[in-house]
Structure formats: C-alpha cells, structure tokens
Design a protein that fits this description.
75 residues; elongated; single chain
Length: 75
Amino acid sequence: MILRRLLFSAARRLAADPKVQAKAADVYDRDVKPKLSAARDELQELAKEVNPLDDPSGFARRLRDRAREVNRRDK
C-alpha cells in the first residue's frame, strides 16, 4: 500500500514537471502523431474497400489480415 502511494506520488510529480511535459509533447508530435495519421489513412482506405456497416465481419477480417501483414513486415 505504501509503495503504491509512493509510486503514484512520484508519477504525479513527474507529470507536473514542465520539462517532462515538453518532452512528452515532442515525442507525441514527432513519433505518435505521424503514426496515428498513417493508421487513420489506412483505415479509411480499408473502409473504401469493405464497408464496415454492410459487412462488419469482412471488414474485421481485412483489418486483422492487414495488422498481421504490418507486424510481419516490422520484424
């Protein structure tokens, strides 16, 4: 219980640190945001191929296959 409180307290202090906030914003802008944008674009393209409202299982299947393809390529 004490360790948990100490960890949460340390996390709160880190999150309030302006240097940590600036670093987090930089990482988000440089690394996360472009990946999210690319994922959004891929999902839009996939939705054009298979309409998720008309064929949800087909869309999920194509999404699963695409995720497996990307994971194999990244290794």
